[in-house]
Amino acid sequence: QVQLVESGGGLVQAGGSLRLSCAASGSIFSINTMGWYRQAPGKQRELVAVIRSVGSTNYADSVKGRFTISRGNAKNTVYLQMNSLKPEDTAVYYCNADIGVLRFEGIRADEYWGQGTQVTVSS
After folding, report:
1. What pLDDT score does 120 carry?
2. Residue 8 CB contacts under 8 Å (≥ 6 apart), including other chains
3. For residues 17-29, b (16+ Cβ closer than 10 Å) or e, as one string?
């Protein structure tokens, strides 16, 4: 009933920048939290950044000072501005959201994931 669609991934040289976007659509009543995770080949998925409805943010230590997470004005979008990219940032990046879905019987809170977008950083 809810879809998250990421975009903005690609190939960039070390030191370059990319901006990832994620848009949520469907029968959405509220979005409490949106965030970005990433998974490199052979490694476990890790949290990159999150932003809550109250505006607070949290970042992985490895990206602090380089990445910035933000919400769109419509509050159904989230962005990840990635600067000073390093080869170790190479991964598939996934959008994640905690969403309250409007159903006929009421509101149901669930976690949703996007399909992922590839980010590759070359030396």
Report:
1. 98
2. 18, 19, 20, 21, 117
3. ebebbbbbeeebe
Measured distance CA(35)–CA(69) in Å, rounded: 8
Beta bridge partners of 68: 81
Whether the CB-CB separation of 4 and 95 falls below 8 Å is answered with yes
Decide: residue 87, CB within 10 A, 0-12 exposed, 13-18 middle, 19+ buried: exposed
Chain mean position to CA 27: 20
pLDDT in tens, 66-103: 999 999 987 799 999 999 999 999 999 999 999 999 88
34 neighbors 78 (Cβ within 8 angstroms): yes
Q: Cβ(60)–Cβ(80) under 8 Å? A: no
pLDDT at residue number 74 = 78
Average pLDDT over residues 95-121: 94
Task: Compute the distance between CA of residue 38 and CA of residue 94 in angstroms, rounded to an integer.
Answer: 6
Pairing of β 106-113 and β 28-39: unpaired
